[in-house]
Design brief:
5-stranded parallel β-sheet, HAD_sf, Haloacid dehalogenase superfamily, subfamily IA, variant 3 with third motif having DD or ED, HAD-SF_hydro_IA
Length: 258
């Protein structure tokens, strides 16, 4: 995979919890698998993924997890203007997982802690990535606040993104993705129907949520928001604002900016 930096801004992303999710694990199994000393050996390459799972037990089956589709849509938009790299505390199976999930072609570089021999939140791992890519700084997003804080110590703009909404905000305020257009509609069923139709036509990410400005006592009158970032032609959704204004009006709604 290419690791030659460009003059584009650097966007460095954590993988798990940002672009990939896993099904819940039993508390008993998690206690064994994520015991700090054992986990550290696995994510710094002292032991292989197979050895880690063998140490945990036969019930610890290997799984590649699932891509968080809405987050991937945001990364695809950001990649048009950014050099996007992954920095993951991972075992030796990371590269195989990325290939299986199709994520290896969605980023410009991958940094695996088990290959580097050092893991987040050690500031050394961030400095090594910056040195290898030839950048002095960049934006780093992680769902672990400690990792984001450590990145700031290493000279990065470290951002804690506990969910996809936080990732979207982080990219938007740094102008790494274009402004979002919001379809604001009065009916939840219509909003979800419009979102499904737009998603099928190639719009993204088409996330639906309740108007955050509505009070808890306004449940009967609340508006519903459909978030649109990219159009089917690859342009920002804002490039089609007039078309989206007409669509919102057809459903007794209106548009706003994210």
């Amino acid at each position: 995979m290419e690791r030659t930096p460009t003059l584009k801004p650097l966007l460095l992303l954590d993988l798990d919890g940002v672009l990939r999710s896993f099904p819940p694990m039993s508390a008993e199994l998690a206690e064994i698998a994520f015991e700090p000393s054992l986990l550290h050996r696995a994510i710094t390459g002292e032991i292989s993924d197979e050895q880690w799972r063998e140490a945990v037990g036969p019930e610890f089956a290997a799984t590649s997890g699932e891509v968080i589709a809405e987050a991937l849509a945001l990364v695809r938009v950001a990649r048009r203007q950014c050099f996007v790299a992954l920095l993951s505390n991972a075992t030796t199976r990371l590269e195989a997982d990325l290939a299986l999930l199709g994520l290896d072609g969605e980023v410009d570089a991958v940094f695996n802690s088990s290959r580097l021999g050092v893991a987040k939140p050690d500031p050394a791992i961030y400095r090594r990535v910056l040195d290898e890519l030839g950048y002095s700084t960049g934006v780093f997003c992680d769902d672990d606040a400690k990792n984001a804080a450590a990145a700031r110590e290493a000279g990065l703009d470290g951002v804690h993104v506990p969910d996809t909404a936080a990732l979207r905000r982080a990219l938007a305020v740094r102008e790494l993705i274009p402004p979002t257009v919001l379809l604001i509609l009065p009916d939840r069923d219509e909003a979800e129907g419009v979102a499904a139709s737009l998603l099928g036509s190639g719009w993204g990410p088409c996330a639906v949520h309740r108007d955050m400005l509505a009070g808890e006592d306004d449940a009967e009158d609340v508006d519903w928001v459909v978030e649109l970032t990219t159009a089917p032609d690859g342009l920002p959704a804002s490039a089609h604002r007039a078309e989206l204004d007409d669509l919102a009006e057809q459903h007794d709604g209106f548009t706003g900016e994210g």
